[in-house]
Amino acid sequence: MSQCNLSERSCVPCEGGVPPIPAEEARAMMGALHPDWQLNETASEIRRKMVFKGFAAPLSHANLAAWLAEREGHHPDINFGWGYVELVFTTHAIGGLSENDFICAAKWDRLLASE
Predict the structure, then answer these.
(1) What is the pLDDT of residues 79-89, one digit of tens each?
(2) In order of start, what are the domains of the chain with their CATH numbers?
(3) Do the beta carbons of residue 38 and residue 47 sit within 8 Å?
(4) In angstroms, rounded to a whole number, what is the distance separating the alpha carbons of residues 19 and 97?
(5) Maximum separation of any 2 CA atoms in the chain, in Å
(6) Which pLDDT tens digit goes with each residue over 4-13?
(7) Which of 104, 69, 61 has its CA nearest to residue 86?
């Protein structure tokens, strides 16, 4: 699955009742994302940390991530402070990763590439 393909898709609401993406499939889907994304050991979340100078750029990127999350209806945990912003995607309703997590990560990658 290509990053272009993922970033052109839209998230669909997930209220549970479906299994999370299996670890093997999640590892394969990581190839469609920027190499800075990391899959945790249990394949239940993906995260990307970006480093900046100062506070304004992390705040701006956190706000951009929030805007994207609202547009897609799928919300990451956003951690930021002086010099960094980190996004963590997981689908809480299913206790692991869904395609929505990868769609939003790919859309984030596309936004950053256009800066």
Answers:
(1) 999 999 999 99
(2) 20-113 (3.30.1360.20)
(3) yes
(4) 9
(5) 43
(6) 486 665 555 5
(7) 61
Q: Out of 1-5, 20-24, 110-114, which region has the weakest mean confidence (pLDDT)? A: 1-5
* 106 against 2, higher pLDDT: 106
pTM of the model: 0.87
Please, is 61 exposed, middle or buried when counting C-beta atoms within 10 Å of its C-beta (0-12, 13-18, 19+)? buried
46 in Cβ contact with 39 (< 8 Å): yes
Residue 11 · residue 100 · CB < 8 Å = yes
- Show the CA angle centred on residue 77, arms to residues 73 and 97, nearest 5°: 70
Helix (H, G, I), strand (E, B) or coil at 28: helix
- The DSSP string of 46-114 is EEEEEE-SSSHHHHHHHHHHHHHHHHHT---EEEEETTEEEEEE-BTTTTB--HHHHHHHHHHHHHHHT
Can you tell me the distance from the alpha carbon of 77 to that of 2, in angstroms, rounded to the nearest whole number?
24
